[in-house]
Specification:
The longest helix has 18 residues. This protein is α/β, with parallel strands linked by helices.
């Protein structure tokens, strides 16, 4: 996997412009050392330490999803129509699944990489277009996500307003315990010392909590950022 360190907003923009096409996917991570393992797969070590194996982990993944399907109706007003929308909705609301979150907007990915200031470098992973199969709504009935042999990118149509606002995609992984690798995957490293500056630049371009989280939580976080976290110098 190629790797590039950028040291400014303009350098990030120029690198994206020169290396990625329109349908590329991006994923921002707060820790540049983070491996692209889906959330359910990150439990494997803990399961093995307790004497369980991968088969038990994946069995519990299905049980958890079935429980989510059975219990989500009062909150959504509808039940997921198939396993694709079930995975997308469960992943979006924090249930460990075999999915990874991505976006088609490189600025959104950058926001999620730098939104939390820490002493660790962050990163944006970019996956070049044309290197992975895309699954859209009309293809959902042709294959079950649990029967996949290769990683695919899934676009969930109108699952939640947040996914729409974030230009969200998901990759769905046949073996969620393995780190995702692809020869067309590029890691853009964001040094910790420029995170605050990048976050301020993103705010100027309209990439902020109110836009990405179209609800009262997003509104409150946006007001907090503007009024308390980004004070101008007197």
């Amino acid at each position: 996997m190629d790797e590039k360190t950028v040291n400014s907003f303009s350098e990030y923009h120029e690198f994206v412009e020169s290396h990625f096409q329109r349908d590329s996917l991006y994923r921002g991570v707060r820790d540049a050392n983070f491996e692209l393992v889906p959330s359910v797969g990150r439990y494997l070590n803990a399961f093995e330490e307790q004497g369980f194996n991968k088969a038990e982990l994946l069995k519990r993944e299905r049980e958890a999803l079935n429980a989510f399907r059975n219990e989500c109706f009062p909150f959504t007003g509808q039940s997921p129509k198939n396993n694709w929308t079930l995975l997308a909705l469960a992943q979006h609301h924090g249930l460990p699944t075999r999915c990874l979150d991505w976006t088609m907007n490189p600025l959104v990915a950058l926001f999620f990489a730098v939104e939390e200031n820490s002493d660790r470098d962050s990163a944006v992973y970019g996956l070049k277009s044309g290197t992975i199969e895309y699954i859209y709504g009309e293809h959902e009935d042709q294959i079950d996500p649990f029967d996949l042999e290769d990683v695919v990118a899934y676009y969930p149509a109108s699952v939640t307003p947040r996914i729409y606002s974030q230009s969200g995609f998901f990759t769905v992984h046949p073996d969620p315990t393995l780190p995702y690798t692809n020869s067309n995957l590029v890691k853009i490293v964001i040094p910790t010392n420029i995170k605050t500056t990048l976050l301020t630049s993103l705010l100027k371009y309209g990439i902020h909590y109110k836009m990405l989280f179209p609800d009262l939580d997003g509104l409150s976080k946006w007001i907090k950022t503007v009024k308390f976290d980004n004070l101008p110098t007197k």
